[in-house]
Amino acid sequence: MTGKRILIDTSKCIGCKACQIACQQWHSLTAEDTTFTGSYTNPPELSETNLTLIRFIEKEEGDNVKFLFLTSRCRHCQDPRCKEACPLGAIKKQKNGIVRIDPDICDPTACSTDPLWVDRPCQRQCPFKDFGGGTGIPRRQYVKNGTPISGKSYKCDFCYDRFGKAQLKSGKFVGAFAKSNRPACEVTCGPGAIKSGAANTMMNKATKRVKYLKNHGYPDANVYPNDFPTHVIWVLTEKPEVYGLSSV
Amino acid sequence: MTSWPAGIPGYYDDLGNPPKAQYINGLMCWGQNPAVGGPSSSFERKSLANLEWLVCVDLWKTETAAFWEPDPNNPTDCIGIPGRAVNTVGTEVYLLPAAASYEKEGSITNSGRWSQWRYKALDPPGDALDDLEIINRLAKKLIALYQADIPSPLADPVAKLYWGPYPGVDAHGADCRPVAPLSSPLGNGNGYETGGHADPHKVAWEYNGYFCTNRTGSAIIGTRVDGFFNGNSALGNLQENGGTSSGNWLYCSHYINPIGGGGGNTDPMVTNGNRMEKRSTIDTASGIGLYNNWSMVWPLNRRIIYNGASVYQPGHPNVGQPLAPSKWVVAWDSGGTAARAGGDVADGYTPPGGTGPRYPFIMLPEGVGKLFGSGREDGPFPEHYEPWETVMTEHPLTFLAGENPRHIPLDPVGKVSVTSPTAFAHARPEHFEHPGNKNPDFPIVGTTYRLTEHWQAGQMTRNNPWLCQLQPNAFVELSEQLAAILGISNGDRLEVKTKRTDYYGTSYFAVACVTKRFKPYSIEVDGSVDTVHHIGTVWHYGYTGLCTDDSANLLTAHIGDANTGIPESKGFICNIRRNNGPLDIGPWLT
Description:
heterodimer, A: alpha+beta, 4-stranded mixed β-sheet, two-stranded antiparallel ribbon, B: alpha+beta, 24 strands
């Protein structure tokens, strides 16, 4: 695979949610209204103003309890079905693999009048429906002052606008970026669980890490998704289904 | 934040209505929020109303500053003190807007003794001022007021406080400070100010110390001292003859002479002599993380105190060699006489033939470490004690008083105290009687903790909408087993009670978080094995800011460590029930 890739290593994540805030800060997204409903996962779902979200999962193994943290977000598919589905052509795939929605073109009134949560072609065609009641990843709704607000579709854009002029021009990954030219979530991640770089380098890194983890107490470690090429990948310490993830 | 030192005699207190003069009647609360962060916060809030005046210096209106405001649900009562009418509070409350860390310049010393300089990025908003300027203005005003008052020995400590060379103020050192050159922090007639504003560099200079008199040699009046050790033998160091001045000997060597500015030693890494600005990321010595040239460490840039203990002592054939060569901190080669480059500033080792301390523990008369630690309140040996409030009635590890000489027998059989007999506990009715009596009303063990999403008492984070979004409410974590017994579902509203909430009539409410991470456990109590349930809750919340809720410090007790008074309020006994409103209240645990 060419282009960029983000690698999220769940074995290093400490669940601090700094990536959630860094994402909102860089994208100037408003805070949602939330209440504590019995889980550390908050807001409870990805939304128009929360493009990345840490899910907290408890897994019991005999007398041991594992507290798992999964940063979930758009996978930036190599072959993005949302792009094909958008009747307006608002979803674009850059040469470097970044899939982004152009808010100037996205117009929800043009593709759907259905007021329900799952209504837009980009959501319907998204292959990753593990969370959010079966909704695909692009989200268009959040809650403010007690009222659900609905707008354009939003999702992770890989912080494409942090890469600098040269990157935007060439449209592909060249060499190492300055630290500040990396995605906001990566820059803020204290334990270094989020890394970005050339797609193949990141995959090699993930494979190497999984091999290490398998020999160090995590026999189920794996690279996810393993059957669908994407520009965001995870190193999971448990099988995907433990996190509520399924294969595509 | 630190605890309210509630046990200190003379501390403000609500017990027995003593004459106010015996108690502290004014309080300056500087970046602290005891109404949320103090243990037994109902007591803290109630006591605030006993003050004549209260000054809060903070970025936002804290719960402490707002304790007297009308409760929106019951406007005649104070929001911080249920049952206390607003119009009966006589406390005059001031709120001074402060500057955030990036809105002021100065040093900050961490608990590893690293004194790091940091810089101002932008001006604070509106009328907000940095701490140093607030202190400067207050000090100048107070000094002027005391000087205008009738002279008395009691007034002298303030009236004659030296605050820069104000005419007539200089009480100690007529031979010294007024003649300091203009280049010194004291020579320009503006006290600690530059351009009408308190200057952290002048304060750093004062702390570091400087020469007050000319000496034979190169040192001249006003130049900065290099350090404090061996005061009379080294030319640039603090003198014990009155020839130098220093605000705090620990910081001697932190703000030394600038390069080209005259005076004694300089540091090639910082041209202005401010060694707290050093930022080398090179880890010298053996790579164990000394970072000798990142910032400055008191005393004398000694990163690890008593580091002389890491080498063979005089008398050993390998004298001066590190005990662990791959992790060396300091080392002396050539028979223990030549210090190896790149190591830490030596502490407590003197090469053979030298003078001065030879043994590593320079602050102890023996010079060596001790297993028998005399001088501690709770005994010469480490001992486990249960928290002040506990479900245990017997010490779980030590059964007879004779097994530990400091244990105090509590009954004729010689049973030992289950909790620390010397703990720092103010005798107040909302505490359990010492020692930890088991109380059937409170069968559950409780503890409090913090979240990554919120900072301390919450002013910095509960005023940030993003962080409120992440953790909007106080919650109680409990096991699935306890939830099943009490009919509690995830997300229910819970009521928690302790002796404090009973005494002050302020229940603690929070959301239930039923989790696999809490489990009941078995312990032996009174000879029989009991199942003990354990809950945990967070204390960041209060009644001001964007997300408000109860502080778990409504539950905790004012208990401190026997030697230092450091809060040990995080363990307590309690009871919980479901309370989703008057129509949906569950049972307490029995």
